[in-house]
Amino acid sequence: MPEIARSGSCLCGGVQFRVAGEPMRVGLCHCKDCRKTSGSAFHAYAVWPRQAFETSGITSTYGTRSFCPTCGSRVPFVGEDEVEVTIGSLDIAPTEGLVPSYELWTGRRESWLQALPAARQFEHDRIAGDSAAGDETGLEPRQRSA
After folding, report:
1. SS3 per-residue string spanning 41-91
2. What percent of the chain stands above pLDDT 70?
3. What is the CA radius of gyration of the chain?
4. Which pLDDT value is given to residue 93?
5. Which residues neighbour 75 within 8 Å (Cβ) at sequence distance 6 or greater?
6. What is the pLDDT of residue 75?
7. d(Cα 132, Cα 24) in Å, to the nearest integer?
8. Per-residue CA distances from 46 to 6, 112, 131, 140 (Å)
9. How many angstroms separate the CA atoms of 121 and 101, rounded?
10. Is the dihedral of CA 104, 15, 93, 80 positive or negative?
11. What pLDDT was estimated at residue 7?
């Protein structure tokens, strides 16, 4: 079976990217930073291993947020081992197979939004070492990593 490849870009097309294979995790975040940078009530994203990602174009970064300096669109943030891709920046919609398995900062979720069925719910950040499917007992909170 051929490997799944997804492509995306910023609004003006100056930054383009491609991810191969399935993401490590898919989630929603309701934290203040994600709300402010997305301009929405939440941020939907998928995280791939760094080696599954290719990009072209010039980006700017503020904290852990990357964007196109021409049009201002959010583009994938490239970390040391992972790449966080905003689901809305992918070229094909709806995004088949990218179903969030967890939600972060649920205490900030709008009252008119319902919890995602079958998704793990985290009051704040994910728990260290948690793939969003394991047991969180005894694990310490970690810095925000989508």
Report:
1. CCEEEEEEEHHHEEEECCCEEECCEEECCCCCCEECEECCCEEEEEHHHEC
2. 86
3. 15
4. 86
5. 9, 10, 15, 17, 55, 57, 59, 66, 67, 68, 86, 89
6. 94
7. 10
8. 12, 24, 12, 23
9. 9
10. negative
11. 97
121 contacts 46 by C-beta, under 8 angstroms: no
What DSSP string describes 11-46? SSSSSEEEEES--SEEEEE-SHHHHHHHTSS-EEEE
> Is the pLDDT confidence value at 85 over 50?
yes
By the 10 Å C-beta count (0-12 exposed, 13-18 middle, 19+ buried), 122 is classed as buried
Give the pLDDT confidence score for residue 146 in this predicted structure. 58
By the 8 A CB rule, do 77 and 60 touch? no
CA distance linking residue 124 with residue 144, whole number of Å: 9
pLDDT digits (tens, 9 = 90+) for 88-145: 999 998 888 899 999 999 999 999 999 999 999 999 888 766 555 433 333 333 334 5
CA-CA distances (angstroms) from residue 26 to 23, 70, 72, 130? 7, 28, 23, 13
**d(Cα 34, Cα 133) in Å, to the nearest integer?**
22
One-letter amino acid of 89: S
